[in-house]
Amino acid sequence: MRIIVSIRSLLFTLGMLIMSMASFAQVRVGVAITIAPPELPVYEQPICPGDGYLWTPGYWAYGDDGYFWVPGTWVLAPEVGFLWTPGYWGWGDGGYVFYDGYWGPQIGFYGGINYGFGYFGHGFEGGRWDNGHFFYNRAVLNVNVDVIHNVYNTRVNETVVNHVSFNGGNGGINARPTAQEEAVAHDRHIPAVAAQTEHVQAARSNPELRASANHGKPPIAATAKPGEFKGGGAVAAREGGAVHESAARPNLAIHPSDLPSRERPAAPNTGNPDLDKKYQQQQQKLQARQDQERQKLQQKQEQDHQKLEKQKANDAQKQQLEQKHQQQTQQLAQRHTEQQQQLQQRQAPPQHQAQARPPRP
User: Fold this and answer.
1) Residue 16 falls inside a structural domain
2) Cα(99)–Cα(116) distance, integer angstroms
3) Is the entire prediction scored with pTM above 0.90?
């Protein structure tokens, strides 16, 4: 009995520790996406609905049907003195992972992404708290001074204007957190409030907000209040952002056996039979090795399933394992694609390479 009580106490303590860590961490535990999110669209900011509302910029989220747009919106601050640090996509471990936003006394790192409206990559230029009231910077935020009087006007120079929506990786923002931003990540903060969570769910269920439907130009780019997707407070995008190849189509492969059959690369044709034969052997060798890696990962995942069945795991444990398997499979597919591309680049016809060289004097 004492052993059981001790185990329960240990599990409770461990659970509290995990919850405590989660309150400080700005990462969403989930599956890394191998396709980069679309670029950020351009849109006008709806007018602030009232005193105490803070702007939360729009962003691309990922669901069962691929990327979908979560409109920017005004949200009541959960506590006096709290500011919103936006979430962002970051590259790591072979895929794009979303880092959740949070509320706190200071602005933390949000990937160096220029979301506009005061969020120009680092910090926040849209306003500040003073004696329990939030003062809005009219040069950055859309505020009706007849309704809200706690305003000021300070112009801000945006050094870099772009539509990139992710940090790191190929084509991403090359930004790292400052020492102060790293410290903020460990300060007390709270996650998105209920109104924000419901706002995301409403966006997820709206087919018009999917990248596959709007092609990077959402018809509802921003709203005056969370979840209000109709009426005068809803604003459409003025300009769309580029949608990366296959960004609108999710990779549903969970196991290597779910991956589509790979197309055989075209036979080398350099004009040199011996060189063509060498290149073809390299292609066959790479394909054989990749097939072995697929089979090995498939066998390993099947063993994981067998162990879970013996342990009589619950649905939550099974789902967690499937998420892990999907991430492994996507990383494998991404790695194999990059290996094939690198091999094809090395096998470029010699005449093309010769053309790239400057002529001899």
Assistant:
1) no
2) 18
3) no
- The one-letter code for the residue type at 318 is K
Residue 308, both tokens = 């879970």
Choose one of 174, 205, 239: the last residue of a domain: 239
Q: For residue 287, with 0-12 CB atoms within 10 Å meaning exposed, 13-18 middle and 19 or more buried, which class applies?
A: middle
Do residue 42 and residue 181 come from a single domain? yes
Count of domains for the chain = 2
| Those residues with Cβ within 8 angstroms of residue 153's Cβ, 6 or more apart along the chain or in another chain | 137, 138, 139
pLDDT tens, position by position, 197-253 = 999 999 999 999 999 999 999 999 999 999 999 988 999 999 998 887 655 444 456
Same-domain status, 109 and 210: yes
> Considering the domain boundaries, does residue 327 fall inside one?
yes
Containing structural domain, residue 220: 26-239
**Which residues are registered as beta bridge partners of 75?**
54
DSSP designation for 119: B
Q: Are residues 212 and 296 in the same domain?
A: no
For the stretch 56-68, pLDDT in tens is 999 999 988 889 9
Contact 310, 236 (CB under 8 A): no
CB 115, CB 40: distance < 8 Å: yes
